[in-house]
Amino acid sequence: xxxxxxxxxxxxxxxxxxxxxxxxxxxxxxxxxxxxxxxxxxxxxxxxxxxxxxxxxxxxxxxxxxxxxxxxxxxxxxxxxxxxxxxxxxxxxxxxxxxxxxxxxxxxxxxxxxxxxxxxxxxxxxxxxxxxxxxxxxxxxxxxxxxxxxxxxxxxxxxxxxxxxxxxxxxxxxxxxxxxxxxxxxxxxxxxxxxxxxxxxxxxxxxxxxxxxxxxxxxxxxxxxxxxxxxxxxxxxxxxxxxxxxxxxxxxxxxxxxxxxxxxxxxxxxxxxxxxxxxxxxxxxxxxxxx
Length: 291
What we know:
Layout: H1 2-28, H2 32-37, E1 38-41, E2 44-47, H3 55-58, H4 62-75, H5 101-106, H6 135-141, E3 151-152, E4 158-159, H7 162-173, E5 178-182, E6 187-189, E7 192-201, E8 204-214, H8 221-237, H9 249-259, E9 260-267, E10 273-279, E11 288-289
């Protein structure tokens, strides 16, 4: 009887020593598998990863803990980064820059707002007036426009087609080096649609303006939204000096005197008469005709 008791005591002591040894191993090694296997119930770890109120599950199981430690010892120490997986569970195939949870939480990306990380172009004025552009860009932006490119509206307003503003920006900054960013939602006042845009060039805020466009039915809203964008672009480009002559009263008067003419024309359907402007090299478009 004494021999049996001594044997059981030695066996229990050996199991306890082995348990403490395995605990020291698992506490010094990062093994995601062990973390997933062990959960805590009433302050003590249990195997299975789920909480329970059963009294039997709250008792500490040395056998299960030893089995988990043996599994870890047989596979060898593997950190989450060595396996190419961060603690956040996102795999990095190159195993160089593991993505951490705090990095994702600190990101300002929101697809609904249209910005990424710290570039909140819907609200920021980043880069405004920090330095002039290089001389090559300035020469392109402020170059005098050719008189052959200028158009005139029937009411006598001189303008440069918006596509030519885009071409000038592309020559100055390159395609992709500039863009228009919405600064708010569309607004409707009667039959006029408007929206505010900001012009950004080479990552710098340049100007902000509200574009507007008239529409006549819901089927033309898509076209009206494009008109808003183009109108805002023209207004923003004034701050870059593009086609600045068109806002110079002296230039406008001289251009009209040399290249334009105002005449009485008749509406082909209504029969009404009206004085309208045109270029001397152009004719009036339908429904207006000169009789």
